[in-house]
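re the bet — no i am not wrong, look at it urself. input seq straight from the record:
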Amino acid sequence: MGDRLSCVDCQVYPALSIRDHHRDFGLLLEPLGFIKVLEWIFSIFAFATCGGFQGETTLLVSCKGVVNETVTAGFAYPFRLNTVVFSAPDPKRCGGTWTDVYLVGNFSSSAQFFVSLAVLVFLYCIAALVVYVGYKHVYQQNSKFPLTDLAITVITAFLWLVSTFAWAKALADIKMSTGASIIPGIESCKAPGTTCRFASVTSMGTLNVSVVFGLLNMVLWGGNVWFVYKDTNLHNQSNRLSSPGIYPTQEYRNKMIL
């Protein structure tokens, strides 16, 4: 793990070396460092609440020789529901009338986009915190570092926006595809003498929480753009241009007119 993190540090900030290292944990109490810690923590919650989910949908089936038999379909991240099949009500499969019943929908692209972004953000935050704490003086002296940090922050804020809304839409569809509305679409339940009733589905509260953390990450990264921007030469140039000292005084302008 240490080697991988070191590799990430080298790729993002290649000019840093051991001799430049000066630890200063006080930066973590400043907005730039404190927000980065929050981004790191919230990224963990984002991928943990989404990527760690497991659930199942349960139906009660009555058919030939079977009364209120429980059939289940288990599903989990990355939510390829079209590969999930319900268990059969009995070994005889309701006298041969029960065929394999699959859930509907493949929501893996949205889920994997969301989780992958959270994992990459987690790794980048570690690399950035190493630089902030150990190499802040190098970060401030080399204009490329703050500009790179700013570009990554802006892009990440946008990606959180896109991935969170895509995942929220996918989650709404997952709830539809695993809820009571699936009954009318099951052909085996339409066979003579067969009835199906929806029993339950695992609560998706943790998935709702993952959407909330996605939104929080989007707000954090969007707000952090300003604090990162303040460390760039773009902000310093704008301050110099707006400084009253660079404009000619009234006395100087009068002399020029004369």
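see?? Residues 1-14, 245-258 have pLDDT under 50 and may be disordered. told u. also The CA atoms of residues 20 and 79 lie 46 Å apart. so pay up
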